[in-house]
Amino acid sequence: MKTISGFLSTPFVLRRRVRRFVAGCLAVAALLLTGNSSAAEYFVSKTGNDDHDGLSSERPFATIQKGVDALSAGDILTISPGEYAESVHRQNLGHLEKETIIRAEIPGTAVLRGDVPAGPFQKTEGYNLVYETPFDRAVQAVNEVDTLTGLSRMPNLAELDAAPGRWLYDAGAKKLFISA
Questions:
Q1: From CA 117, how far away is CA 112, in angstroms rounded?
Q2: What is the model's pTM?
Q3: In 35-169, where does DSSP find H-type helix?
Q4: What was the pLDDT predicted at 85?
Q5: Hey, is 78 helix, strand or coil?
Q6: 151 within 8 A of 178, measured Cβ to Cβ
Q7: What are the backbone angles phi and psi of residue 178, rounded to the nearest 5°?
Q8: Which uninterrupted H or E stretch holds 6?
Q9: Measured distance CA(138)–CA(135) in Å, rounded
Q10: What tens digit of pLDDT does each residue of 66-96 get?
Q11: Are 74 and 99 in contact (CB under 8 A)?
C-alpha cells in the first residue's frame, strides 16, 4: 500500500514543481521585458535651460553635458537639432544588462562640436610674441582659425615667446596664451 500511495503522490509533487518552475520563468520574463520601463528620457535643446529637469521636450536642458550627467544606465537622451559647441565627459555610464541611448531627435541634425572660439587676444606684458585671452575651460588643442592647423603646446611662457605658432594654457590663471 505504501508503494501505491507513494506512486500516486508523485504526479502531484511533479505538477507543483512544474508550476513553480513555470511561475519563476514567467517572473523572470516579466522582469526582462519591463526592465527598461523605469528608464527616464531626458531632452536637450538649443532653447533649453540647464536649470530645467530635462524630463520633457517642453523643459529641456541647454547642454548635452547636463543631459549626459543626468543619465543612469538604461536611460535615453534625445538631442534636438542644432550645433552644440561643448566637450562632453562621462565615466561609468553603461551597464551590461541595460542599454543607454544618446540620440538625435531627427537623425543627422544634432552636431556636437568640441571646438570653442577663443578671444579676443591682447599682448602679454613682458613678452614679444605672446598674446593672451581669458579662458575658463580645459584646453586639449589649439587650431589656427583659418587653416585649422594644429599648434603645439609649450611648457612655459619663456619658451612660448621663443617659438611662434604655439600655445600654453594656465589653468590656475584661466588664461590661454599663443605666440604669433
A1: 14
A2: 0.57
A3: 64-70, 157-161
A4: 87
A5: strand
A6: yes
A7: -130, 155
A8: helix 2-34
A9: 8
A10: 999 999 999 999 999 999 988 888 988 888 8
A11: yes
